[in-house]
Each structure stands twice: as C-alpha cells, then as structure tokens.
Amino acid sequence: MPAARRRAAGLPPAGAAPARLRVGIVGAGRVGAVLGAALAAAGHDVVAAAGLSAASAERAARLLPGVPLLHTDQVVAAADLVVLAVPDDTLPGLVAGLAGTGGWRAGQLAFHTSGAHGLAVLAPAAEAGVLPLALHPAMTFSGAPEDAERLVGAPFGVTSSPEHRPVAETLVLEMGGEPFFVAEADRKLYHAALVTGANHLVTLVAEAADLLRTAGVVEPARVLAPLLTAALDNGLRRGDRGLTGPVSRGDVGTVRDHLETLAERAPATVAAYVAMAQRTTERALASGRLRQHEGAPLLELLQAGSGPGSLASERAEG
C-alpha cells in the first residue's frame, strides 16, 4: 500500500470511506499539497487548490492530479473544508481579506497549518460562522516525494475550542497523523521550540559541514552522519546528561583554541560558536554536569570571546 494511503490505527481504509467533505487547499506548497493528498486518501473530495508559483503547480499536478488551480476566493467558495497552508506572516491578512469580501460562509470548517498562530488569527472567519482549527504538522517538508510518507505517524500540534477538539483530532487521524493538544497561550512558545530544534539544527549541520570542508575533509557528511545521529539519540533519551565534548569536561584551553582558530579561519562562525557554547555551559551548570568552579572560567572566556577587542572583532575589523 503506498505510504500516502496508509491510515492511522482504528480508521477505516480509504476505499471504505465515502467522500464527506469538499476540500479546498489555499497554498499548494510543500505542506498544503501533501495534506490535500492525505485528505483525498481518507475519502474527502479535494475540489480546488490555489498556488501562485510554478513549483506549486508542479506539486499539485503530482500530488493532486485533476484538481484545478483557481483563485483563492474561488477555492474557498467551492469548499466545505478550507486548508490554509500559507506562510505565517501571510495568514492574518488572508483570513481578514476573505472576511472583508464575504468569502467565508457559515458552516464551513477551516484549519491553518501555521505553528506560530493559534485560533486568534482565524477570528474573522469564526465571526462569519466558520469552525476554526489550528492543525500544525510537527514535521519538516522539503517538497521531495518522500514528504507524503513523512506525514504518516507525524505529530500534529492541535489548538481548538473544547467542543471542536474531536473534529480536529479526527481530521489529523484521517491524514495519518497523531494529534497532541497545544493551548492557545502556548502556541508561540511551542513553535519557537520546534524552530530551535529543527531549523537551527539544519544551520548547525551545514555550518559544521562547511568547517570540515575548510579543514580539507572532502565528504563531511560521512564524518558527521554517525556522530550527529548518536548525539541526537543521546539528547532525546538523556537530555543534558547526554552532553559530551570540551564544555562538559570544563576544557577551557580547548575552547580557547577553537575561538582562536575560528577567528582566523572562519570568522563568520565565531558568534554562533560562542552563543551555543555559552548556553551549553549554562545548561551543564544547571544540570550538574559542570561544577561552578569549572563553568565560571568557560563563561568568562566566552563572554570575552565575542566582545570588543576579542579575536573575532579584530579579524572582522582587519
């Protein structure tokens, strides 16, 4: 059975479920097209999608074959369930704009996929009688074919009113995901946590790979893959107790050597190294991995490492 059609436990197979809702996808990008395909696999009827870019059109043709690409207001008008899969900063204006032109109608369902927003952003639609939901797949989507498979079993951060929670959870389960509840007041913190863990991780990996290339390593991925896999496993299973490396040992000399070398060979990376090493030291102290007399010299070195007169600033000015 193709990955996109695998169902969560306890749900009927797609072939046994009648088409219940006409679905419109606003934003046929990396997330919207995949969710549309999952809803179609669950027996819903995806009737239209909106996407401006050539990449969106290609993705819709691949994942939503036969679904027409229409203007946003036409998509909303045709749908019982509207999926808003647009960038965070675009979402408030889009919802309000549709309300201003009478695009919403009472009895519709609408969910957005933004992790940064909760229900408040859907208030203009709710005032028009729309049932509002926030369903955020806590998964990274790259636009590659494997995105559909990543959705299976993916956790979804769900924010809804108590009376609408069964509807939200059912939709998530139908898409193959696993719902967990996030309170409205916690939505921004929840999203900041995911960005810290996923987006910043990509930056750290790419930064490490660049440094290895500068050091003459031709295939940095071969070196990093086993190391980072083990580090991620340690972090998930053991938290701060999984920390290794010079900070966990209080090796001030090694950290000083790193700062001097980076200032000379890769000065653009010094600020990031200092920030991460400082936070790592603080967490190591708080968790008992370092004692105060071991952590204090590290913090002193790091606080001086990026300030005026530091090696990094001297290199930058030079």
TrEMBL record:
All copies of domain Putative oxidoreductase/dehydrogenase Rossmann-like, residue ranges: 16-137
All residue ranges annotated as the DUF2520 domain in the record: 155-280
InterPro entries membership: 6-PGluconate_DH-like_C_sf, DUF2520, NAD(P)-bd_dom_sf, OxRdtase/DH_put_Rossmann_dom, TM1727-like_C_sf
Gene3D superfamilies: NAD(P)-binding Rossmann-like Domain (3.40.50.720), ProC-like, C-terminal domain (1.10.1040.20)
One Pfam short name: Rossmann-like
PANTHER family: CONSERVED HYPOTHETICAL ALANINE AND LEUCINE RICH PROTEIN (PTHR40459:SF1)
Protein name according to UniProt: DUF2520 domain-containing protein
Species classification: Bacteria, Bacillati, Actinomycetota, Actinomycetes, Geodermatophilales
